[in-house]
Amino acid sequence: MIRCKPLLGTYVEISTNDISPQNSESIANYAIDRAFDAIELVQKLMGFHNPDSELSKINQRSHLDILEVHEWTFKVLSAAKEIHTLSAGLFDCGVGAKLVGAGLLPQHEGVSVTQYGGLSDLVLIEPNKVTSHKPIQLDLGGIAKGFAVDKAVEALKVNGIKSGSVNAGGDLRVFGESPKEIQVRSPSHPNTLIPLGSLEEGSIASTGLYYSKSQDDMNTLSYIVNPLNMEHIHFNDSYSVLAPECMYADALTKVFAISQDDSHPCFKHFSAQAIRITA
Amino acid sequence: MNWKPNPLLALAGVALVGAPIYAHAKIFVSAEQAQKLIFPNKQFTKTPLLITEDVQDKMQSASSVSHPFKGDRVWRASDGSYFIVDEVVGKHEMITYAVGISPIGAVQGIEIMEYVESYGYEVADESWRKQFVGKTVEDPIKLKKDIENISGATLSSKHLTDGVKRIMVMYDLTLKSKAK
After folding, report:
1. What's the CA gap between A44 and A46, in Å, rounded?
2. Residues in B touching A273 (Cβ below 8 Å)
3. In chain B, which residue's Cα lies nearest the Cα of A278?
4. What is the pLDDT of residues A51-96, one digit of tens each?
5. What proportion of chain B, given as a percentage, has pLDDT over 70?
6. Which domains are seen in chain A, by residue range?
7. CB within 8 A of A278, min separation 6: which ones?
8. Nearest-CA distance B3 → chain A (Å)
């Protein structure tokens, strides 16, 4: 069974390998529905575009109050802070304000601060409470999609699916005893695919600018911002990271693209593999 | 995690050559399956619609989807639920999708039925597109076998959002009054 829905601003594909022939379709459909529900919940909690999401509340009020958040939001923020620390600031979801300024993210009403803090200003209080030292404009776009994929896989497993895969616009996780051939797009020729080998029980995410750099608009600003100097980064290569969990694969592509270092200590720490495809 | 890398990856400095995709098609579910997924226990009857030019114009200006909507893929249930199949055509892709609308006129669910991706002029070419129309269940073998598991394509679902928008405009103008 393979199904697809528009979620997280992209197309999310969920595929399950056949189980027992009896009722297999209804079991698969039920499990896939629960997996889509999980992704929808991540979108509802952590979407930057949605002014009512928990993330938007954090962006509006965390410097004024201690906010109680959903455990999933807390988990993503904890992982984001962990990667932020281990990458010495290369990974930072605090670049939201910069992306708003460049017109890549929407400006919400009532947000008019000019000096924002970053992830290091965010304080996490167990269990599931957050506050911050400074006003922040977090954008979880670089990590929440991978997390959503992990949650979808979890929902599939809980509902009896032994093997399959979830692909949210290139953030991909395969699970169960069934290895899959994976490919990445060539950064110079997006219409060609480069085979990376076969993957079992693992995830891959990639970052490239091939889709944000259209030919009729070469001046488009990149959506990758270096948090250390707040400059938009332009690059031609594509950066993929394989990791056991998709959330880490997703987040570590930013560390890779910014550091340009395929043996950055972060990768070893998270049992990840970095692959650069040169243009 | 168990990754068996493509052996060519180990050769530093060698430019990897990929296989070109000219048309990459994926079939997810048929119209019948999509109907059951969105409305598990409802019976639908096909109720083709004649869409006037005026309604087409309004749908277009509300959604920026320019190719005309085909009114022959509309189904209705006795409680006033509607099930509609449509497609959107982007620069590089064509997506056939189903929208379920509840009796009160809210989107009940969206299911993508088919996805065709291409990089040439082909998608914009009407005759090229026509070869895929209506072939979701009947003739899947004619479509190129799926290429699964591509990392790195962050295709935006904006076109689909526009498509759903035009369906809702159409519903508002023509079906809403018939729903009850």
Report:
1. 6
2. 3
3. B15
4. 899 999 999 999 999 999 999 999 999 999 999 999 999 898 877 6
5. 66
6. 1-48+149-173 (no CATH), 50-138 (1.10.3980.10), 179-279 (no CATH)
7. A187, A237, B15
8. 5
